[in-house]
Predict the structure.
Amino acid sequence: MLASIYTTIQEKIRSGQKQLAVLIDPDKFESTEIVEIANDAKVDYFFVGGSLMAGGSIERCIKEIKKHSTIPVIIFPGSTMQICDKADGILLISLISGRNPDLLIGQHVVAAPYLKHSGLEILSTGYILVDSGQQTSASYISNTMPLPHDKSDIAACTAMAGEMLGLKLIYLDGGSGALKPVSGQMIKSVKENIRVPLVVGGGIKSVEQANIAVQAGADILVIGNALESDAGLLLSIAEAVHKGIILNN
């Protein structure tokens, strides 16, 4: 029997392995090139979803990925319309940096009956949206104010609260199209105050930025927009992330 996604995440953390996820927007998924590169780079997970979908098919996207890869596919949903039982798991996101009740519990109530019978592994996730230098699709669509980029103490307290509420993952994200990534100082502050796995994404466009996030404490790094213009960047970022095991020892 295969281990659950969450068990795998925890086992890799215990063994000192840093993990990498590639974020794919179904609206922009036109070929399987990124999937093939992800296979070569030994990426750990695919995240699939977007703040807003305007014509793409999440089911078609997931099926195409699975035709060409055995890497687990996890839905990163922007709404309940992005739930699909063809994936392996789903981040059940509670947007804990905002005060929009619909994204704290409302959409979850709507989705719960379907999720219960979907067969998807449910990964409850405390999502913290961080200011990245400009308004992103995530902040606009969610109608929430991102957490200030330099307020590491607020981020840490928010993450602690999420963990105390029983959420399995904490996700620090600058959002799609972020001008700058979450700072190493904020990642470090959050990591020092929680025991659940920490996911970090948004605005990472170089190996150096990836390395800073990993060394600061990210357990899972998420790369998305940067690969749309340079898919080959994934190979060098994957090498840097997976070398985290060496640099940390």
User: Anything to note?
Assistant: The chain has a mean pLDDT of 93.
